[in-house]
């Protein structure tokens, strides 16, 4: 599939695709960043606490409840 | 169509979705959060006689002692922060997945594949986990089981997301040989079978107690509206932005070919 032999375009316009090699670094960096954000909003200072305390939990408290994550 | 251009549009879609999500969460959800908290406080006052000796572990954000963030901050700036950051993060991830599948799902165009990513994301990441482990208002849930409940929720979410991704990949493979109809049916049925079996295998959590059923339902419905708003706005805005990007990039090439046009 990846060895595209450039099929002759028969009527249908070619849909451009982006090389996965170009996407990989963006996906890796942003994926990690997104996981970090999701962790702090959805789970921090509930089951696991980094840092210890309750301030993060309380600050995002309502969002955590309404976005459907277990809060306390 | 570069990864950077697509990610920027994903972040923008996430930002817009975050604002819309906050609006829905604040207007539709907050009244029921407040109602649940007032019920919780009433219950706490009623059981005042044996004062809460130890308050560790089960530290409710709305207990008077140990509260660091006021309720008015939690329901406004705090809620906005939560919805915005999650929306932007999900918007970005959806845009990068949309970039990866563009032009790779049979003959589905950019708009269709982007909308599909958002729709599959909503079902796999939000709706199906919600159906198994629905959101709970404040006052529902035992603080001592938060570890187990968090593990169960994210465990089930992981099963659902992996099954959804696998379903799309399998369907995409099948589409080339067996046609789109068979591919879509096999993908959908496969996903449903996996999450139903996982749903039966994962334990049920029920810590509702005697919490009023109507308030619980109103809260859960509001929670579902909140999640639906986020995914719908991300899907709609991102699809629109990417289609516009595609047109913009096709336009210069077209004008070069049609020189005499103004």
Automatic annotation (TrEMBL), chain A:
Transmembrane segments: 23-41
Stored Pfam families: CbtB (PF09489)
Sorted UniProt keywords: Membrane, Transmembrane, Transmembrane helix
Protein's name in the database: Cobalt transporter
Automatic annotation (TrEMBL), chain B:
Domain of life according to the entry: Bacteria
Positions of transmembrane segments: 77-101, 108-131, 151-171, 183-202, 222-243
Pfam family, one: CbtA
Biased composition annotated in UniProt, kind: Basic and acidic residues: 55-64
Key words, A-Z: Membrane, Transmembrane, Transmembrane helix
Chain spans, region Disordered: 47-74
InterPro entries cross-referenced by the UniProt entry: CbtA_put (IPR012666)
Protein name: Uncharacterized protein
């Amino acid at each position: 599939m990846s060895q595209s032999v450039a099929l002759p375009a028969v009527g249908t316009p070619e849909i451009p695709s982006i090389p996965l090699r170009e996407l990989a670094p963006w996906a890796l960096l942003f994926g990690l960043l997104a996981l970090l954000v999701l962790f702090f909003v959805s789970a921090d200072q509930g089951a696991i606490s980094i840092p210890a305390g309750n301030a993060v939990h309380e600050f995002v408290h309502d969002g955590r409840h309404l976005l459907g994550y277990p809060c306390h | 169509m570069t990864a950077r251009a697509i990610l920027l549009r994903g972040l923008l879609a996430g930002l817009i979705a975050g604002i819309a999500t906050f609006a829905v969460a604040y207007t539709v959800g907050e009244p029921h959060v407040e109602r649940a908290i007032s019920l919780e406080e009433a219950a706490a006052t009623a059981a005042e006689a044996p004062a809460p000796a130890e308050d560790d572990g089960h530290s409710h954000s709305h207990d008077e002692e140990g509260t660091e963030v006021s309720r008015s901050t939690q329901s406004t700036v705090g809620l906005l922060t939560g919805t915005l950051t999650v929306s932007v993060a999900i918007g970005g991830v959806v845009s990068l997945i949309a970039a990866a599948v563009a032009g790779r799902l049979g003959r589905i165009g950019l708009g269709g594949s982007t909308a599909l990513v958002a729709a599959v994301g909503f079902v796999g990441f939000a709706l199906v986990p919600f159906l198994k482990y629905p959101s709970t208002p404040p006052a529902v849930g035992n603080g001592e089981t938060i570890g187990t409940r968090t593990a169960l929720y994210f465990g089930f979410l992981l099963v659902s997301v992996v099954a959804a991704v696998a379903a799309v990949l399998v369907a995409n493979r099948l589409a080339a040989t067996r046609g789109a109809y068979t591919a879509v049916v096999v993908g959908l049925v496969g996903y449903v079978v996996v999450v139903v079996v996982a749903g039966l295998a994962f334990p049920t959590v029920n810590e509702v107690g005697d919490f009023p059923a109507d308030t619980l339902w109103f809260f859960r419905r509001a929670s579902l509206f909140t999640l639906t708003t986020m995914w719908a706005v991300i899907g709609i805005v991102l699809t629109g932005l990417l289609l516009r990007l595609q047109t913009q990039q096709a336009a210069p090439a077209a004008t070069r070919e049609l020189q005499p046009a103004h």
